Amino acid sequence: MAKKILGAVAVLIVIFLVVVATRPGTFEIKRSLLINAPAEVVYDQVDDFKSWNAWSPWDQMDPTMKRTFNEVPSGVGAGYAWVGNKDVGEGNMKITDAKPAEHLGLDLNFTAPFAANNRTDFDFAKTGEGTTVTWTMSGTNNFVSKAMSLFIDMDKMVGPDFEKGLASMKKVSEEAAAKQAADVAAAAAPPAPVEAAVDAGTP
Hints:
Oligomer: single chain
Radius of gyration: 26 Å
Number of domains: 1
CATH topology: Alpha-D-Glucose-1,6-Bisphosphate, Chain A, domain 4
Helix content: 25-40%
Strand content: 25-35%
CATH superfamily: START domain
Structural class: alpha+beta
């Protein structure tokens, strides 16, 4: 009986290994949203890591998250690291390529609760109504992540966070665009007329 049980277990293990091996070797999570603001305004929300706390969904999950920034304020070479609670973990990211108002690419590295190296891209497409922002995360699946994919749908787990982040980015960007437009209008407005002073001694 024991041999039969061990044999059955061995067969199940082999089947499991075969199934895991056939899982996709790569993954991609992508979400898009139309934002009623110029691409330059939206791009600025992503290009500067210090602006992320206004829209990043993970900052909302852990308001006490510790953040550190490198010496590059924005653009290629700008880096950011975080240490947070169990919901956000630990990791770092760095901008590797940037085309203002069009594209921003980052290397994203998780160190806890598990190690992973992924790619993140933001694409900004100008439209008649504003800017369509597409947020993409992609990477490779090792054996562990392939096994996890049998029980966890990464798109369903991470996708809603992207949607929340884009919604917050929309709010922040549209407010920034409205303020920018108001400032431009105020600067272009003609000065208010000055009433002529009245000389009390003139009859």
